[in-house]
Amino acid sequence: MFNYKYLYYCRNDGIGFQYTCISKLLNVAISENATLLVDWRNLSFFKLRRQEFSVDRLHEFFLIKHAHIVYDPHEIDRILLDHPDEVLGIDMGKHHNPHPQAASHIRFANFHELGLEFDNKCEWLGPYISLRGECFEKFLNHRPIAKRCIGIHARLGNGEMLNNPLMRQRMDIPVERFFEEIDKHDDTQILVCTDSPAFLSACMDRYGNQVVAVPRSMPDENEGPGHAAGKKPRNIELDGYELLGDSLVELLLLGECRFLICNASLFTVHARKFRQVPHIVLTNGGADYGLLV
Fold this sequence. Notes:
Strand order of the largest sheet: 4-2-1-5-6
């Protein structure tokens, strides 16, 4: 297909987008006997809070073990400097971030323009994620509970500032729509994962001790999701590493549930596609902004 030893990937999006794109590119890397360079220095969890990316800090929460993946920035810079002609930068989709200075001298191409397709029988990232520390304990403690639960993922924005109307539309799902689906499952526990404290509170008010919520770092109401700023500035005072780790715990726990109710988001790709959890996706006017891989 092409003669490159390395694929370079750098996006600043949330963990669902990261999980999906890295899974896609990992399959390409394996099929081409290449190495995927995952540059997380511009990841919004860190960049928003002016935190430098550190592999050591990341490994306090989780690590990725795969022979075809490198995410150590020092090793990435060495490869970019010593072997630029052997590296192909990949833009994922129509909307990509500006290319980092470190990768300004390599060739970039759009994933779809290269004719690279995502096979459903793909190598998903999930099995190669190893949780550490408190993240491991949270997952271990909640996994048996999640297996009995209906999983709920409500990606509602929490005051996130968005310019794209389709992105806004897929989050404008009334709370009552979620309740209608939850009420079809009588007297069952529900694992609630959301970016909105108000949604979690509404679920607790309605369903009481049926609600299971993982203790986690979370922005306050209207401060945006963990990976993006909202209408208030205090979100940036939170630890991006803790937010990322806790988000990953919830992403993986949703894959343990017996059923999933969600709106359009790549956060649930692990549960819907890799773990094959039966699910219903609540849409708004049919626009999903391509977030239902």
